[in-house]
Write a structure and sequence with these properties.
Layout lengths: L1 H23 L3 H9 L18 E4 L20 H9 L2 E8 L2 E7 L9 E2 L3 H15 L26 H5 L17 H7 L3 H5 L11 E2 L4 H14 L3 H10 L8 E4 L13 E3 L1 H12 L3 E2 L2 E2 L3 H7 L6 E2 L13 E3 L6 E6 L3 E6 L4 E7 L12 H12 L5
Parallel strand pairs: 5-10
Antiparallel strand pairs: 1-6, 2-3, 2-14, 4-7, 6-7, 8-9, 11-12, 12-13, 13-14
Helix pairs in contact: 1-2, 2-6, 4-8, 4-9
Length: about 375
């Protein structure tokens, strides 16, 4: 018994010393990450972590409930489709056809009023916020980033533009791995000073020449937006979009600390029905019930394939302004995507929008389409009534 007590005592001492070392070396975010994942039985961030950090409200205005399609009562999934959704721990599968709810399914902890983490779908929302500023003449996509962030005035940094950040063509080596506890992405998600974590990064080679998906680009977009406007991203998104598209619930955007900056690359919390409103807005190229909320030109640019190459030398046809594109799929579609398989998908040819939320996704096995997304598209299209 004495040996057991001594072992426990030394274990606590070692843990305490390790924790102290992490704090002293500026890596306290690792402790926050551990407390939000491994210490509660998870290996990485999850969709239901809303209460784990400070958030800023994205206020709704006057709610406008979705109309229900006259075909809604007659739509259903096959046993195999139900099993597939369950296998990936799907919490919400919502299909909007012709601007009405055609199908709605919730399971596990999902529900009509349940808020879910968007993860990287938030990058799309940040792009929309930039678009609203462009529409108002506050900034332009051709602007050099140094115009708003003076630390980018030297050397190759001076060539960096807002458009290159939108298109993930900055050639800044942020890294995108959440599995590296000391990497930029872990610091960005769990740290308490996002601007400080981002401040040292610079362009490493000629910007605009190579595409690489990295959330740090989105952080810079939010930083330059706030520097230019002196407005909070959440407040701006509320005024420009959330209040105007009839959201039925307040949304929330995680910030790095109380009064701090939004984690613009992730952690926007909303319901499936309200996420679907973003899809409807882009289905109609920025119009909501006939009112132009975001310019059609910015919407078109957002979903236009690029002509640059990625690091493997492939022409990038799958990414626009923080939207994922599938121009070569049948039918073609575009989507906002988040880790663990959060999707807002727009299929213009079918007058279709759908939202899928859940805990798991199938990883890519080649190409730019995840296998689960292709299957979700097929399931959603299959629900459209034959006329």
């Amino acid at each position: 018994m004495r040996i057991f007590i001594r072992t426990i005592k030394w274990l606590f001492i070692v843990i305490g010393l390790l924790a102290l070392m992490l704090v002293v070396t500026g890596n306290s975010h690792v402790l926050r990450g551990l407390s939000a994942t491994y210490l509660i039985g998870k290996s990485r961030p999850d969709i239901n972590d809303f209460d784990q950090d400070a958030c800023r409200k994205v206020a709704m205005g006057s709610p406008r409930p979705w109309p229900i399609s006259s075909f809604e009562s007659s739509t259903s999934l096959t046993v195999q489709q139900e099993a597939y959704l369950d296998s990936l721990q799907t919490t919400a599968f919502l299909v909007i056809w012709k601007d009405s709810i055609l199908f709605e399914r919730y399971s596990m902890e999902g529900g009509v009023d349940v808020l879910s983490n968007s993860f990287s779908m938030a990058k799309t929302f940040t792009s929309m916020a930039i678009g609203a500023a462009v529409d108002r003449g506050t900034l332009h996509v051709e602007d050099q980033v140094s115009k708003f962030l003076p630390r980018f005035k030297e050397g190759l940094n001076a060539k960096l533009t807002v458009m290159q950040l939108l298109q993930m063509r900055s050639n800044i080596d942020f890294g995108e791995s959440y599995s590296n506890p000391f990497g930029y992405q872990a610091r960005a998600y769990y740290g308490t000073d996002l601007l400080a974590e981002t401040a040292s990064y610079r362009v490493s080679s000629n910007p605009g020449t190579t595409w690489e998906y990295q959330g740090g680009n989105t952080v810079l977009l939010a930083e330059l937006f706030e520097a230019r406007t002196n407005k909070k991203l959440s407040d701006w998104f509320s005024e420009c979009f959330w209040k105007r598209i009839g959201a039925e619930h307040d949304a929330w955007w995680r910030v790095d600390h109380e009064g701090g900056i939004e984690r613009s690359f992730s952690a926007f919390y909303a319901t499936a029905r309200d996420f679907a409103r973003i899809g409807k807005l882009f289905l109609h190229r920025g119009k909501w019930d006939g009112v132009q909320i975001l310019s059609g030109s910015y919407c078109e640019a957002s979903i236009t394939p690029q002509s640059v190459k990625d690091k493997e030398g492939n022409i990038v046809r799958h990414y626009g302004y923080q939207w994922w594109l599938a121009p070569d799929e049948q039918p073609s579609h575009f989507s906002a995507r988040g880790m663990r398989g959060q999707y807002i998908v727009v299929v213009p040819e079918k007058d279709l929008v759908f939202v899928r939320l859940g805990h798991l996704r199938e990883e890519k096995t080649g190409g730019t389409m995840t296998p689960d997304l292709r299957k979700f598209v097929s399931i959603a299209i299959g629900l459209i009534p034959q006329q």
